[in-house]
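Weekly modeling sync, notes
Attendees: S.R. (lead), two postdocs, one rotation student

Agenda item 3: backlog of single-chain predictions. S.R. asked that every request posted to the team notebook include the full sequence so nobody has to chase files. The rotation student volunteered to paste the first one in as an example of the format we agreed on. Action items at the bottom.

Example entry:
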Amino acid sequence: MRFTLRQRVLLILAGFVLITFLLGVILVGYTFRMEGLVSSITETDLSALQDAEVLENALTKQKGLVSYFILDGHPDWLRQQELWEQRFLNQLARIRNSPGETSRILDEIESEYREYIAKKGRVVDLFRSGNAAEGSALNRGVQMHFEALMQLSERLKQFHTGRILAAEAASHAQAQRLRILALTAMSVSVALALLLAFVFVYQILEPLRRLRLEAHRADTPARSDNEVKALSRSVRVLLHTMDQTQSELQRSRGSLAEAEKMALVGKLAASMAHSIRNPFTSVKMRLFSLSRSLDLDEIQKEDFEVISSEIRHIDTIVQNFLEFSRPPKLKITSVSPSGVVDAALRLLQQRLKSYDVAVGVNRLVPLPPTPVDAEQLKEVLVNLVVNACEAMAPGGSITIDERTETHPGLGPAAVIVVRDTGPGIPAHLHDKVFQPFFSTKEQGTGLGLSIAQGIITEHGGKLALESTEGRGAAFILILPCQRKSHEHHPDH
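Predicted structure, as returned to the notebook:
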């Protein structure tokens, strides 16, 4: 039968409690038994031993007093001897009233003492009558009775002494058993303590330590004296990270779904663009032929120009769809992005006048040669400048700042900032302006910034937005001055 970790710990603790309880009960019981044993010794055997000594003392006193009478014949010795006789009898009667197993010895003592008293009385009478010779002869018989009484008293003392020694031996035996039991309980307790320590160290603390190390992150403390606190801290970090990861996963799922939708839209756009572009090419060629062959008045020419302009607009939209549907193919050359900026501004010179927009370039020195596709980069700059012109009212201004900086992750980079004085872009739209088909203009396709970001990304750079509503917008182009070794030309 296998026990869980909790059951094992509880069983070991229960063993500790049970052993402690049993040992306590045994100790309490032993104290009661020792108390009863000591009480028995002091109340019975020790008292009886003292009584036996009193009998011996009274008997010895009687013998001595009789001897004194025989020597000088003074009657005071006899009166004292009678008092000790009465004391002996009283003591013997008291001993008989005490509980015990000495009645047979006491009967012998009483019988022997009666004969001793009778013969001792005849000896006293003989000495009183002056018959010393016969009294002395009889006194030897009295001496035999005295010695017999002393032996009986010694037997009585030995009986009680034996009981005391037996009680002492029993006490020693119980103490020995208690020591053995205590040593056994201590050994079992030590074994249980070692087992509990093993369970805690190898089945609780060690797994907690390994789990803490596995849960350890670089932003948490590397060591801690308290494994549980360290694990709790690591688990809290993991839970926080898990929440963040789950949130990011949900956002990634949304982004993936949006990307899949955009990819599908891109495929459809490419297919539709190819299908629409060929008929429009034929229409443009026919209009060009008609414009050369027909003799039109001013109104007809104006209508004809409007039709041609709208067809060109549709063709631009179709071209944007085509560019969005396929990655840009870069033709990388090492040129200064400052020259590309100047080329884009020359191309837009007339349009800037039509929008009544002033453009200024802040350039201390030309940007260093950078591996770029000049035409694609010019398209990005044109797109950004035109968007800025369309967002501003007449009389606005555009400032283009150029600088070099070391960018984290990109290294030395050329930075171009296109800043306008328009209405700005609300903060909640910052993440949407680079999404395909998102536009704030009524006739916009929403592909310009998406295409621009794709071109800059193909260059290994970044296109970012900084804008505050009502204070204009700034688009930041960051182009690495050196292409990474793993990057290759798309045409290769």
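Discussion: group reviewed the output briefly. The chain has three domains: 5-205, 243-326, 330-480.
Action items: rotation student to repeat for the remaining queue; S.R. to check formatting next week.
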